[in-house]
Amino acid sequence: MSQVERAKGSEMARVSEAYEIAEMSAHDLLEVVEIEETCGLSRWGWDSYHEELTRPESIMLVARRNSLDATGKQLHGFVAARLGADELHVNNIGVLEVARRQGIGTALLARATERGQLQGAQSVLLEVRASNESALMLYLRQGFEIVGRRRNYYHDPTEDALVMRKALRSTT
Q1: How far is CA 111 from the centre of its chain?
Q2: Known catalytic residue: 19?
Q3: Which residue is catalytic, options 19, 49, 139, 154?
Q4: Catalytic annotation on 154?
Q5: Fewest CB atoms within 10 A around its CB: which of 21, 23, 65, 91?
């Protein structure tokens, strides 16, 4: 086992001791929207997440602390993705600032990717703000490549999106 594989394994272990990656439910949506608002993500809001929960092609997961933290928050991260044809599109992924750099984003992305792959995804696609260096580095470490740019894709503030893609190995 390489050092990188060992590091990823220990990172996942740290996450699993403190957090559970679970299906998002309607009861989670207020905290999901709070996380969305603090992360500078494209705003979906409660109604959009609620509607997305009803779609069978959606993969909606949360990182739930096993106990409340000092802020009183139980959810520290989430991912909203949708399977279309043979591609998983990650629409939003966010982690509370106080919980960043603990492997939560990596764990959420890995679990969503795994679920998508089991449902036939051959690749994962996402957009990221061009200035979001920490997210960009996370995606590059996870094997994503920049495949394009969408001009003025984001608003408040207006900014380009980098389009990133990761090919998945066949599960068969």
Answers
A1: 9
A2: no
A3: 139
A4: no
A5: 23
